[in-house]
Structure prediction request, 64 residues.
Amino acid sequence: MSVLVQEVINADYAFVIHTTNPTSGDSSEIYTEVVKGLGETLVGAYPGRALSFICKKHDLNSPQ
Prediction:
């Protein structure tokens, strides 16, 4: 068992990226949520709005 301790920075935005869409279970989609601030409204039971979007993995281009 280990514990990770990190300094909290004053972030402008926080985000979570799911490599499988959690609402549909579709593994060909990436589901992302973004909030302004440190992310309490994103990961906690706080009221607030998250900008969310879905993209298909095959639509992404790898840099050459």
